[in-house]
Amino acid sequence: MNSHNRISRSVAGIILAAGAASRMGQPKLLLPWKGEALICHAARTALQSGLDPVVVVTGAGAADIQNALAGLDVTLVHNSAWQNGQSASVRAGILALPASVEAVLFLLGDQPFVSPDLIQSLAQKFLETHPSILAPFVGDKRANPVLFSREMFEVLCQLQGDAGARSIFKQYPPEPMQWADERILFDIDTPEDYQRLLAISSQ
After folding, report:
1. Taking the model in full, what pTM does it have?
2. Domain ranges in the chain?
3. What is the CATH code of the structural domain delimited by 3-201?
4. Please, which of 39, 53, 76, 102 could form a disulfide with 109 given CB 3.0 to 4.6 Å?
5. In whole angstroms, what is the distance from residue 108 CA to residue 13 CA?
6. Do the Cβ atoms of 118 and 81 come closer than 8 Å?
């Protein structure tokens, strides 16, 4: 049995894509990068990594996200309470997972330098050591995506408001996995960030 199959049977991916991207001024996950929308790149990366299932939680602009992902083998879950904050999307994603899933990686569509290698390294480390929470670190800086074992699902489902999963890290510190590529710290919140992405990509 190869590691790809082991991963796909054990570790799921949840892409949080429900926000309104108010700082960007337009749906940032639909912005083009390398010939496709950012959300498509995130979904394709998750699928190439062997995560199964890959759940995409939509909210604002759900129809456009769904259209952008047409043809990709992802499970779409609509969070009608997306305005209540990220906790509602976390809960919607977890509740959509099959019982066979041992852990989940939370992915963000606006972090295009998260690679299949990073995702597979996190999943493989989980399968070997079974930490409750596992996060990549660049030096002393925690990055995404963060992996949560099934034992943490109930805690995540109790989050309220705009509290993302990181709000529990003080009580449940993630086990660190060092990663050399500092580009995984890059995310896109503003038009300036997007221009930086295009500039980096053209180098």
Report:
1. 0.91
2. 3-201
3. 3.90.550.10
4. 39
5. 10
6. no
